Amino acid sequence: MGSEGESSDFNSPLYVAVGRNVKEGKSLLTWALENFDGRNICLVHVHQPTNLVSLLNGKLSTSKLKNHVVKACQEFERLKIQKLMNQYLLFLSQTGKQADTVWIEMRNIEKGILQLITQHSIRRLIMGAGAETFKSKILSETNSTKAMVVCQQAPISCHIWFVSQGRPVYARPVGFGSHLTTTVTLSPSTSSSGTILARDPKENMDVGAENVQYFERPNRSIDDVVSTMSPSAPTVGQTSGGGSPSPLKVERPAYLTCSSSNTSLDSEFQDEEICDLRNKLEHTMIDAENSKHRTFEESLRWWRAEEDALEAMHKAEAAESLCKEETNRCKEMEELLHRQKQEMETMNSQHDQVSKELQLIQDQKPALESQLRQAYDSEKELEDKIIQAVNLLITFKGTRDRLQIEYDSAIRKVNKYRALQKEDPLGISSAHFFGISFSDIIEATQNFKPSQKIGEGRYGSVFKGVLCHVKVAIKMLPSMGSQSDSEFKNEVEFLSRVRHPNLVTLIGACPESRSLVYEYIENGSLEDYLSGRAKSGSLSWQSRIKIAIDICSAILFLHANNICCVHGNLKPSDILLDANFVTKISDYGINNLISENETPSSFHTLGSKNDPEKLAYMDPESFENGKLTTESDVYSFGVILLRLLTARPAMSVIRDVKCAMERGNLDAVLDTSAGEWPLKQAKQLANLALRCCEEDPMDRPDLASEIWAVLEPMRELCNSSQITSIASCMDSRNQHKIPSHFVCPIYQEVMKDPHIAGDGFTYEAEAIRGWFNSGHKTSPMTNLKLDNCDLLPNYALYYAIQEWQQNT
Ligand SMILES: Nc1ncnc2c1ncn2[C@@H]1O[C@H](COP(=O)(O)OP(=O)(O)OP(=O)(O)O)[C@@H](O)[C@H]1O
């Protein structure tokens, strides 16, 4: 057994504790090689982990760090250890040695060494003892705390050599501490009890009482407790440089066994009691080691359990929160379900309700359909009734309008008679107009000789004639109709009183033949000039403006008469020009001399009888309702004004001028035969005329305040221009000057009893009679021989003079 023990002891490796200081480690190895050549060497290393990651506590850290980070750090740590160990192994291999390595991870190095000693049942260990130790005689004086702690706390079965700077400073023998003082001194020359010299291991082998032969006889080993931790132990690392780890076995330490073969031990420890004690102590130590090992394993298990518990707790917490979430979701779903259920119930009840109502309606449907049919029938009946009522209404309205016209006419006549009565209370009205017999009319017209006919109007033909040696124009009106003779006379009476320089004078009338006798106007009508039929050429723009002024003046006069007189049929063919180109309007008041059937109200019924060119002057409103108003004359005046400006056809003149004005190109439509129009005035007149032609009478300008206000200032323009050929106008507003035709050509005074002579001129009766009585048979004005010396009273002029004298 002894030889076996020695052999196994020799084979057991020599452990050398090497640190991170490679130089120091190599020094230790050098010393070991020098002194223990032939033994297997196993490097012992305690790795101090970094703060962040511990290889041993990796599992614990995993809970805080990401797994891959932890693994990477651990790998790094291992590499560091490996690198360090490789340096030592390389060093050894250079000396032809192979070595194993054992390492442990621990923050406290001395504790790590102690643990490795225990775990690997290290029997022989070489470790450094600090730099200064070799000078000290006592190990406790060393500055190496690690050496001190290991020396004091390492199992007694372990023989430890402390080496400093390549020199052994202390050797702790096996069984250290069981009977020695803890204070260890280093003194190669001093040998006291319990003190072990360690100058040299060889020396130690010779001198040492316990195991001085240890290195000298490696085959003489003491049976150790060989305890090798499982290679899978998580806290310890072991690598093999050449061999495999030893199997786990616990044996009784051989060096504690009393052996008869060991004479040196027998001599020292023969006492059986001591031997027993040592045995007990050894057992106790083994037990302690085992229990420590178990405790360690238990601790490991406990750590694992704790980790598992922690992980389980985290999982439980996660599961709990998941469970809460699920519960909440479940509750929400339940609430949703509940709401949907309620909605469903509501919808169901509504559906039932609607179904019931539908059924009810379906039941009522036939009755409702029959009611609907009845309603349709009733509606149709009502529609028919409404149509009948509307027709009746139209009829009534027509009747009402007709009655209204009749009423207005009657009122007008009454007013007229009243006015006449006022002016002629003695009933001498019959003397106010020149009554002419039908035979005189026949004679004057040479029995209506066609050559005497100068015109054909809507109301009859106009013949030229000579009456009492005076040139006259005789207008033959249609038959009397409903108008009585007295009514006709009254109308003529009224008209013969209307006197104005721009109105054709009504000389007399023949009630019998319903003929009106007017003064004959030499120069034809405005229509002749505008249509280019006049022999004397066209009118200058000055003459045209003057004519417009004259027309306006005459209409104003008619409208302002005691009894308003609306012309109602104003057009260029009714505007005549006398020998001095003074404007003379004819046909005024003629509407009242013809029967109702012939009035403009019935124009549209006459249809083709009317020339559309003539109808273009008619106010559309009057044309529609048959009522003549002052605005009707304004409309006609507007069209005449446009024709004066452009000489274009009446039917299209409004549209033409409108377009030209919109395009800003009035020039294009102005009648150039009138000369060069002053554009400003022309535009003014065009604007004025277009306003007169507005469809709605209310939109037309007022004759006195607006139209006259534009025209009157233009009189100066006409006078200053070259219109000397045109006689000056004498309107009602210019009465302070004596009108020339009021003055007797012989007396050169205003006439008191004007009479028309055979030459057509009017003279003071006394003056012309005196002329004739003095033997003259010629005209005092022309000096031409007169056919006769008859005189005809000029009532019209007489009344005009009287009126003028009253006003002045
Ligand atoms: N006093 C007059 N002196 C000279 N010529 C006249 C006179 N009165 C009428 N005439 C001529 O007789 C023509 C016919 O006149 P009249 O008033 O009958 O018809 P009108 O005005 O042309 O059309 P309507 O009567 O249909 O409106 C005139 O255009 C004019 O040439």
From TrEMBL:
Q: Origin, by domain of life?
A: Eukaryota
Phosphoprotein among keywords: no
Q: Which reaction does it catalyse?
A: S-ubiquitinyl-[E2 ubiquitin-conjugating enzyme]-L-cysteine + [acceptor protein]-L-lysine = [E2 ubiquitin-conjugating enzyme]-L-cysteine + N(6)-ubiquitinyl-[acceptor protein]-L-lysine
Q: Where is the U-box domain?
A: 737-808
What residues does the Protein kinase domain cover?
Answer: 448-715
For whether the record's keyword set contains Nucleotide-binding, the answer is: yes
Region annotated Disordered sits at 227-247
Concerning SUPFAM superfamilies, the annotation shows: Protein kinase-like (PK-like), RING/U-box
Which positions are tagged coiled coil? 316-364
The record lists ATP as bound by K475
What Pfam families does this protein's entry cite?
PK_Tyr_Ser-Thr (PF07714), U-box (PF04564)
**Residue ranges with Polar residues bias:** 227-238
**SMART domains in alphabetical order:** Ubox
**So what EC number does this one have?**
2.3.2.27
InterPro entries the record matches: Kinase-like_dom_sf (IPR011009), Prot_kinase_dom (IPR000719), Protein_kinase_ATP_BS (IPR017441), Ser-Thr/Tyr_kinase_cat_dom (IPR001245), U-box_ubiquitin_ligases (IPR051348), Ubox_domain (IPR003613), Znf_RING/FYVE/PHD (IPR013083)
According to the UniProt entry, its GO molecular function terms are: ATP binding; protein kinase activity; ubiquitin protein ligase activity
The pathway that the record names for this protein is:
Protein modification; protein ubiquitination
Task: Output the CDD domains linked to this UniProt entry.
Answer: RING-Ubox_WDSUB1-like, USP_STK_Ubox_N
Keywords tagged on the record: ATP-binding, Coiled coil, Nucleotide-binding, Transferase, Ubl conjugation pathway
GO annotation terms (biological process): protein ubiquitination
Q: What does this protein do?
A: Functions as an E3 ubiquitin ligase.
Q: State the protein's name.
A: RING-type E3 ubiquitin transferase
Organism this protein belongs to? Sesamum angolense
